[in-house]
Amino acid sequence: MSVDGWNTLLVLGGIRSGKSEFAESLVADAPTVRYVATAPEGDPEDTEWATRLAAHRARRPGSWTTEETAADPRRLADVIAGAEPNETLLVDDLGGWVTVLLDPAHQPADDTATITELADAVRASAARLVLVAPEVGLSLVPTTPLGRAFTDALGATNRAVADACDAVVLVVAGQPAWLKPAGAPPHRALPTQAGPGQAGAPAVAAETVNGTVPEATLPEVLTPAVPPVPAPTPAAGADWAAPTMALPMIATGLVIQPGMELPMPDDYAGPQAVDRLATLDIPGAGLGVLERVVGFAAATQGTSTPAPWGSVRVLLLHGDHAGGASAGAVPGESARRARQARAGKGALARLAAESGASLQVVEAPASSAIEDGPALTADQVESALRYGWRLAEQAADAGVQLLVLAACGAGTEAAAAAVLAATAGAEPPAVLGRVLSEHGQYDDAAWMVRCAAVRDALHRTRRSPRDARDILAELGGGDVAVATGVLLGATARRIPVLLDGPVGVAAGMVSRDLAGQARHWCLLPDHGGQPAVRLAADVLGLTPLVDLRLDLGEGATALATLPLLRSMLALAAGLPVHPSLGGEDDEEFVEPEPAGPGPTTTEPEPEPEFAEPEPAGPGPTTVGPDEPVSPGRRAD
Predict the structure, then answer these.
(1) Which in 46, 64, 418, 442 has the greatest CB count within 10 A?
(2) The pTM of the whole model exceeds 0.85
(3) Which residues have a catalytic role annotated?
(4) What pLDDT does residue 229 have?
């Protein structure tokens, strides 16, 4: 069997699944193959193991050469890295390599670093490479500490190598199931985007087709600038958004399903970072409520000394809702706002430029009137979820360290209120804010129409299921569905997200059914006085940091507070430990010379020697040139 379209391949399978035979069939057409054996010889008295090794050797053609790496587990990465482009390597298998890695004879060793070295070598390999590994994730948890250490190390190895390979196949009962389809890269290739004002830059973002976001294209990433001074360039930082897990893939794309096991932030780094603040050389009581920012950044970065976020991307979701949900909204106003952001104008683009953040305007599917029927079809919901996930993956691949979720669209507040009513049992009038007209006046008639639309939608769906997809289809609509996909994708790639407004918190409420870990990667700078955001924050356990009451559109408050959050992280990372706790004291202070028009003395004058006064006797004491004072008299 021969499969084209890949350069590096991982073959997974259980015991006696046929994974080795399948891997050998993939390279059978190669003129020469270097077989890399990783397993040790084992006990000479173990005849069964010796028989297995002999069967493996007997299957190999005589033209193949064999190379052993059991003596040193680090040598496998060197062999792969040194392979030439015209070579074909077959590594069988990673289970034996992990066995050698955990051998006490090779300890102490940094297992994590060694696995990373292997994955880096696979990713950079110029040769045609096939690796075989046993899949132990579906078996029972071992009852011994050594068995558990082996499964943990092998699971980490398989995940790292699977991410580094072009293709991954799982062999079950001799039948291959491709997890990363052959002939396709791990992620769909993204079109090269031209920046604003450059040739080839599209005038608008990707349009929807039949109400469904096309999955082959992603909108351009803009870099707003502050006229006339360009925005500061985001600092390049460590790769905090490395892939963390392999999710089930099928030919049509990513499978997003309830109960997904996504990564959690570091449980220990956050408290350690907050405790560390008490040791810093701070003149006052500390950072106050902004300590939570340090704890959040530490947990999401996995270190007790988190760094300020350098690369930040704003995702502006534009999607309108039809029917009573958009009562009181000016027709075409949200589209104008989206065009304004693409041109680098408006509050959101200006704030993004001041923060050195990139901006991506995303067209979400338009939502139908929820009082009359579903906002989206099931296929549209599935497409929107995958689209949002891909937006987060694109950001992670570009090195983005923080996402800001923003939205502009008619009827978004009513859609969020409907989602909260369905997920948190809220009453629509209690979570639906008043409607402000274009003239700056409250339109209570429009507010009542919106409340009625949400009420009718909840009555229509009173017997419908309340799982995530049903809520998005019946009530949430396109922008909430795309935002939910963004949260899930950001969680999978370990990217924190700043929420700011009803669409973001509604997506957070829906994401609980799909992956409960997503809310732990979210930070809420401000509730903005919006009742829907207040309620969702309480349910999600998100405590707002400030109370600015800005009303500049969803996402603007998060960008306005971003410099403050960065400043706190810079302080926490840069201040030294207090000298009383073992830190180095500052250099001795030298008083600066006074500035003035007169001459300045550079050499200090010698101070007069101290002369001890003579003791006072009974005689008169002179306090002035001509005024004697008698003993016992006070000189005033």
Answers:
(1) 418
(2) no
(3) 554
(4) 46
